Amino acid sequence: MTPLNIDDGGKGESLPVLFVHGDSGNLTQWRAQLDHLRRSRRAVAFDLRGMGKSPPDANGDYSVAAMTSDVDAVAGALRLQRFVLVGHSYGATVAAAYAAQHPERVAGLLLADGGGNVKVSKEEEKAFFAELRKDKDAFLRQFFAPILEPSREEVRNAVFESVRNTPVEVFARAMAGLLTVDVGSFVRAYHGPLLLIAAADIESPASLHVQFPELPAKKMRGVGHWLMMDKPDEFNALLDGFLKSIG
Fold this sequence. Notes:
Elements: E1 6-9, E2 17-20, H1 31-37, E3 43-46, H2 64-77, E4 83-88, H3 90-101, E5 106-112, H4 122-134, H5 136-148, H6 153-164, H7 168-177, H8 183-189, E6 194-199, H9 208-211, E7 217-220, H10 227-230, H11 232-246
């Protein structure tokens, strides 16, 4: 099992909250949420295998199933019997997969600007990963530019620093894993409290809330894909409302 870097803090009688970052992300992207929640409850974030300060997986397994096992490992190691799970972007898919597998442990599921099912041709897939492997940083700067356009400069800088620190094969294999899963099956399998928070200005046919409009969703405006970093106070207020609804 890959050792994982964990940031655990806060205490209280309320349900703990566990955060999952996106592909090429790291736990510091949840800093504002951790600091906010820890005034009254336990809040935990961790680095997925091969990202942030967590080392690469010895077997090179960065599938959604492998990342889901990381969530399970953290919950088990910290003895989180029942908790609220929050995932961003790629991490939203991982969080949804975990909730589908372990509904008895997930008291609530919040998915931040998650993506829906990805459909591309074999030719498009091959071209994407060829360009990615040719020059990861330059390619992802261009790839992320539209979804970072509404973001503040400091957020863009933090995102690209995290990208630079993520090995290309880690990013590529995690991204490839999205092509083989059905996100819809995950969200439909979980019947507990659920909320999507979406960045309205950058929504597309690939957005989770667009593909599944029947799911409860709140929209934030004037934010990019890393919405919890762009407007942390607004995001935290929506998170608080969701947590209050759970009890």
